[in-house]
Amino acid sequence: MKLTFSTEDELFRNEIAKWLEQNLTGEFEPLRFRGGPGDEHMFTEERKSWEQKLAQGGWTCIGWSQQDGGRDATIEQQVIFHEEYARAGGPGRVGHIGEGLAGPTIAMFGTEEQKQRYLPGIVSGQDLWCQGYSEPDAGSDLAAVKTKASYDSTTKHWSISGQKVWTSLAMDADWCFVIARCESGSIGHKGLGFFLVSMDQTEVQVRPIQQLTGTSEFNEVFFDDAIAADIIGEPGDGWRIAMALLGFERGVSTLGQQMLFQNELDEVIQLAKTNGMANNSDIRQRIAKAHSELTIMRYNSLRMLSATDNGQLPKEALIYKLYWSTWHRDLGKLAMDVLGPESEILAQGPYDLTRLQSLFLFTRSDTIYGGTNEIQRNIIAERGLGMPKEPKSLSV
Asked: What positions does the domain Acyl-CoA dehydrogenase/oxidase C-terminal occupy (predicted)?
């Protein structure tokens, strides 16, 4: 495991830190530390402009190959970018699903024509993406999807019909990658396809889902014979491609996520010092515990990334989602206890939450979305430890 960076890496760190200092100013100054969990509704249009500003500076998709529009940045340099971005207070990225999930998947499994069509829009910050995986009856159990894809041999197009739910940022997305059942009568992992669908068609309807925070990052998306622009891979390859995509989700951006966590913990610590809660021995112990566990999270992530082989993450990566979601949920609780009675007082009516109140409410979902803690424990047991699979209940 590498815990130090080379001279070249430190020069790279100075480059990105200087660029952020020079560009997170003027019209972008109000975006600092905004747009994170529970705050994703703030400065939406300005953050879209910020994506294009990053692109102009060459700071989108830096881990991609130069052939695909990236910088060929090393793992160490990607870690540095995410750390410095969070340290500078870079706003929540509205393009992260395209850059971190859709793009790498298209680059790995798409044809040259598909790469030329879709990757430049992601690199430029012009095209935003969302993820069409979960359904009302297929959340953590992705293999239970019912959305259908039908092929018209006359028009040579696939049409998509069905419903997706908990679709983050669908309200702003230009494109959606959709897992749909393309073989009639297929069940489970078989008969799935990985489709790219334009959101700009009347056959696609987006309905926001109001969350505890009063905002609507999540959405329902309805497809009514929507035309798919492309299928990645062959019909039936959907499960294999979907699983590869989830591997990208556990990549280098995890270090940037931890810097955001550090920013939040620092805010809690500063509040405790200001309002006197730092004198409470129980609060001090919980702050120390949060700090220690965040440090452990960082070291485990560095170990995970150091052991990555040809883009394949090691088994250690299986523990990451369970660990961070539980830690972050507990941080939300700590924030409320540090606030004390003020945690129950709104900033103003009718439902104007403070930053820490939004953090607390949003973190209630951390152990549910992206695979519940129960599912994560099953994955660790079965794939990581080789234990027998959980028995399936029999319907009566």
From this structure: 236-384
10 is catalytic: no
Mean pLDDT calculated for residue range 316-342: 94
Over range 229-235, report the average pLDDT. Answer: 97
Domain 7-94 has CATH 1.10.540.10: yes
Q: Answer whether 240's CB lies under 8 Å from 389's CB.
A: no
**Distance of alpha carbon 353 from alpha carbon 41, whole angstroms:** 13
Question: What's the rounded mean pLDDT across residues 350-369?
Answer: 91
DSSP string, 133-177: --BTTBSS-GGG---EEEEETTTTEEEEEEEE-S-TTTTT-SEEE
> What is the structure's pLDDT at 396?
41
Active-site pick, 83, 84, 217, 249: 249
Residue with tokens 């020079």: 22
Please determine, looking at this structure, whether the domain spanning 129-237 carries the CATH number 2.40.110.10. Answer: yes
- Count CB neighbours of 137 within 10 A: 11
Task: For residue 342, give the DSSP letter.
Answer: G
Report the topology of domain 250-384.
Butyryl-CoA Dehydrogenase, subunit A; domain 3 (1.20.140)
Q: In this structure, what token pair is assigned to residue 390?
A: 């959980």
Write down the domain spans for the chain: 7-94, 129-237, 250-384
